[in-house]
Write a structure and sequence with these properties.
Structural class: mainly beta
Largest sheet: 8 strands, antiparallel
Order of helices and strands: HEEEEEEEEEEEEEEEEH
Number of strands: 16
Strand content: 35-45%
Radius of gyration: 16 Å
Shape: globular
Number of domains: 1
Distance between the termini: 21 Å
Number of helices: 2
CATH class: Mainly Beta
Helix content: under 10%
Oligomer: single chain
């Protein structure tokens, strides 16, 4: 069972249309992060330092690639993160129209150090599903966001459904790049401080059971992951 799940979720299949943006911490020396999906959309590292099983990010580090991943709901984003950052909004992974301001969908932490799954299209502020607990405890956590439609986005923490947001927000228009470690709009911000491990973007809505399975299959890579 574990081996089948491993193949299903980390190696792409036509049925899942998965973008598995896998950070290859140890042994990474070429300045490239390899995308283990059919898109082969490898990203370029800027400043982030390999720290198995991911990369360490500070105030201006990021990984990015020009790629129009998605044009419509639904979709799912997952990211393993570890941070002690306090009091500032940070993004771990997102999809952006980098020619615009306020045009991003992604995962990260809010100003209260809680996990967020957010969309923003326009100046009206991020529409975010937020975890109940703060996650800046220096332990590995798996954040997952399911973006169902323009009035429903959900946040999962370590494989468990936590919360949802039903504010109205349009699908981000003109997505042309993905970013790890920042919100990569025309004036990039929300730079991540901490370590980011495996990131995944799915062109489909994952179920709670599928998200729990991904957590169970991948958590062995991340020592001292939250129980």
């Amino acid at each position: 069972m574990s081996r089948r799940l491993h193949r299903r979720y980390r190696i792409t299949g036509d049925e899942l249309k998965v973008f598995d943006i896998t950070l290859l911490g140890m042994g990474e020396s070429s300045g490239t992060v390899f995308n283990r999906s059919q898109t082969a959309s490898d990203g370029t590292v800027s400043g982030a330092i390999p720290a198995f099983p991911g990369f360490t990010f500070t105030t201006d580090d990021f990984i990015t690639k020009a790629d129009a991943l998605l044009t419509a709901h639904p979709y799912t984003i997952l990211s393993w993160v570890k941070t002690t950052n306090a009091g500032s909004e940070i993004t771990s992974v997102g999809m952006t129209n980098n020619a615009s301001l306020n045009a991003t969908a992604g995962l990260g932490l809010d100003v209260n150090n809680k996990g967020k799954a957010y969309e923003q299209m326009g100046p009206g502020g991020q529409k975010s599903a937020i975890t109940v607990a703060s996650i800046n405890d220096g332990l590995w956590h798996l954040l997952a966001g399911t973006f169902i439609n323009s009035t429903n986005r959900k946040i999962y923490l370590d494989g468990e459904f936590i919360n949802q947001n039903t504010d109205i927000e349009d699908m981000v228009a003109g997505i042309n790049s993905w970013h790890i470690g920042r919100r990569g709009e025309s004036a990039p911000d929300e730079f991540f401080e901490g370590v980011i491990g495996q990131c995944l973007i799915y062109k489909k809505l994952l179920t709670t059971e599928e998200i729990q399975s991904i957590y169970n299959v991948t958590r062995h890579k991340f020592p001292l992951a939250a129980a």
